Amino acid sequence: MKYGHFDDAKREYVITNPKTPYPWINYLGNEDFFSLTSNTGGGYTFYKDAKFRRLTRYRYNNVPTDDGGKYFYIKDEDTVWSPGWKPVKTELDSYECRHGMSYTKFKGSKNGVQAKVLQFIPLGFWGEIQKVSIKNTSSKIKKLKLFSFVEWCLWNAEDDMTNFQRNFSTGEVEVEDSVIYHKTEFKERRNHYAFFAVNSSINGFDTDRESFLGLYNGFDTPDVVADGKPKNTIAHGWSPVASHYIEVELHPGQEKDYIFMLGYVEVDENNKWESKSIINKKPAKEMIEKFNTVEKVAIAFNELRVYWDHLLGKINITSSDEKLDRMVNIWNQYQCMVTFNMSRSASFFESGIGRGMGFRDSNQDLIGFVHQIPERARERIVDIASTQFEDGSCYHQYQPLTKKGNAILGGNFNDDPLWLILSTTEYIKETGDFSLLDELVPFDNDTSRAKPHFDHLKASFYHVVNNLGPHQLPLIGRADWNDCLNLNCFSKDPNESFQTTGNKKDGQAESLMIAGLFVVYGKEYIDLCKQIGKNSEAVEAQNHVNNMIEAVKKFGWDGDWFLRAYDYFGKKVGSNENEEGKIFIESQGWCGMAEIGIEEGFVEKSLNAVDKHLNCDYGIVLNSPAFSKYYIEYGEISTYPAGYKENGGIFCHNNPWIMIAETKIGRGDKAFEYYSKIAPSYLEDISELHKVEPYVYCQMIAGKEAFKPGEAKNSWLSGTASWNFYAITQYILGIKPSYKGLEINPCIPSNWKGFKMVRKFRGATYNIEILNPENVSKGVKNVWVNGLKTNSNIVPILEKNIEHFIKVELGK
Length: 812
Ligand code: BGC
Ligand code: NOJ
Prior knowledge:
The protein is of the alpha+beta class.
């Protein structure tokens, strides 16, 4: 069953039934100021950091779900309704929600009145616009009452949800003209406030939640709306809100627009006050002035469209499969940008208070984003590297507001450092900007300990070399990418976090996934050394990589697939000898991508084993058989019920590793089968089962051993977005930036006749046409660059600012 449809021309997903199986959300904002908005108007807004600078309140895990947001109530005689259906939930005559590129539009109608709401955040602006257009489509005069509503968060979202003994006494607001200002804690240590404005005069307002709603009512039945008149309350403590009341009279056919703005202001210490206890409103007024007419709003909205035209214009394909085109051209790239902005902080599954920016996560997010705004990618790489230590280890996460590493989610995850080599080399290949390697980047955010960025990569590489275990394989530390495989944790206490507990200090557990990862990024490191003339370092590093390859062949091969690890006791994990968890996806992916034992047939054999044991109707599960009981020596992985999350779930982040490994042995049909099994646009028809948005990837789909295989969770913020984009564009479609040019090496289903890609690269436009007359999966036979035949499949860096035409023929 479907709940809407794609509108590719507008780059929108159009939801036509508000009762989606889960709230289907979108993100507004691109730089500093962000909102989450669901298909019924739920969600919240924050400045930079969803934990420390939250403007509006949101209650996670609420009943009913997704209650609270930026709401409008329209009272038309005795009928009250909302353009986005919620919160009032009056059955509408029509409903539509269009989630587009950083904007959302609602259109609802009831009893001859149509209301449209456009929500977006203008570029470079610290405020959200909500343009509300109300039209009388009936033949009678309509006298309507419009109420707006937002609920303020007292800035620190965690404290706001827990510290009621204090917070119920601190709330403060001011109201002037049609603007409601939220100034809690402004008089002491905060130099910022928020406001909610509308560009028309108002007939009243409310700022005290209980007065507006009534203590025993929900958002669906506010007292004030039922009474049809505001109480003009000024909040003192308790829960400050902002609601405007506007009387709207419309003749038949008449339409009126109102521009609401939810804004954020920072003032300097000496300019906080207009007069005693009255905040300085000048900056807010300037912001309001900027967008106080529909014309000004239209210009800003158009700028946003042009911005996205530009970003999405850098990679654009035309194939014979519209589901593929809409993923690659629109939604997957869009999700990569959102993931880059949010890391794992704020979604409808991440509460915005738990996780900041992850070291490994942020590095991986970059590979789906670097082509869009390389300058921001560069800045991000430096931010991440600044939280590293001299020995290559690093904090597992940092907070976006301070950019400082913290140990809340532990440290000592031994895969972490290697991802820095991935992000850096992908950045340089995309841009050619080797100067990043010379930039002085601090260790542990201490500028007196800054070293050239290259030294950070070297530290990353040698962190593995210096931390090998009994089989000369990498020590796993607290965990590797699979942070639920906690081999040194041994936790019996339910109050301990698996992420920070390590009860065995002498842990010698080793990871085959890190081994494969090290070979892949070790080779990248060597290649980079050669590019910049560090030849003896390249030779030295090559020895370490060779040793690792040998160690994997000797101690990491189980006969039909790669082992996953050696546990604390030196026992095999992910072996046919094990009763459960005989085979894992990660080591097949990474040792396959590393091509370890490819000549001996290891890679092909292990991928056949993946197909046989891990592949199922909805994707590739993480491990099989899933664990049915708690293994204290394995940790969190075995806490999940079979088929969910890291225990036999389809962890969509790692499926592309197998896709890429499949392309290494030329199996384009298999690679694409795996791609289309988890790409959301292919799952639209099973939305009822899939549950989450059909336009973005989720972290996990329940696996074959689950109670409900195919049901998905944790949409939006996951490394899944960038890895799938990377796999489809660079390995399956096979167009890959390299130091010397664009490498073309597709690995596609053999029945494809070809495809086209427009690729903006190093300032030039490459119009690439791939032809597949012999129905092969892989193999470049002929290449023409601007009509001239060449003998390399690396198309060189071509003249900037002009169009180039590349024709490629695949064949045997
Ligand atoms: C989840 C992981 C996540 C980790 C860190 C675990 O409970 O299963 O997917 O990475 O927490 O927050
Ligand atoms: C989600 C985390 O954000 C990521 O860092 C981790 O690698 C995966 N879960 C797998 O456990």
